Amino acid sequence: MLYHKDIYWPESAARPLGGLPLRYGGHATGRAQKLGVSLPATLPERFELIEVELDQGEVQKWVTRFPWTTNDDLVMVVKPNGFVKTVWLNHKDDKHCTLRCRRYQNESGTESQVA
């Protein structure tokens, strides 16, 4: 089940700890090279959790976002073991007005019906 911070966040969902050692797959390192981003060795102490995917209550991945440059935030898809699947940059002002809510579970555990 997929949850987004702006729709519903289950209280039982574990959260990653700042300082989590990170390792990067080929996709993440390739994206970072294209973007000119030097990837951190650990998850920063301060970050925003955007999304969590759970399978039978166990975290499968988190989407994290944290300040990177004056204009951009770095977004990373992180597995609980510290493996980073992919990365991208979002402009600091990007508020995702086009969020596809139907991808996410709501408080009742069903897909959100908001477009």
Structural class: mainly beta
As laid out across the biggest beta sheet, the strand order is 1-3-4-5-6-2
Using only C-alpha atoms, the radius of gyration works out to: 14 Å
**Percentage beta strand:** 25-35%
Distance between the termini: 18 Å
- Roughly how much helix do the residues carry, as a percent range? under 10%
Rounded mean pLDDT is: 88
Write down the secondary-structure element order: EEHEEEE
Q: Uncertain runs with pLDDT below 50, 5 residues or more? A: none
- Can you count the beta strands? 6
Identify the overall geometry. Answer: globular
Number of helices: 1
Characterize the main sheet.
6 strands, mixed
Describe the overall structure:
This protein is mainly beta and 115 residues long. It has one helix spanning 26-35; strands at 2-4, 23-24, 48-55, 58-67, 72-78, 83-91. The chain is globular, with a radius of gyration of 14 Å.
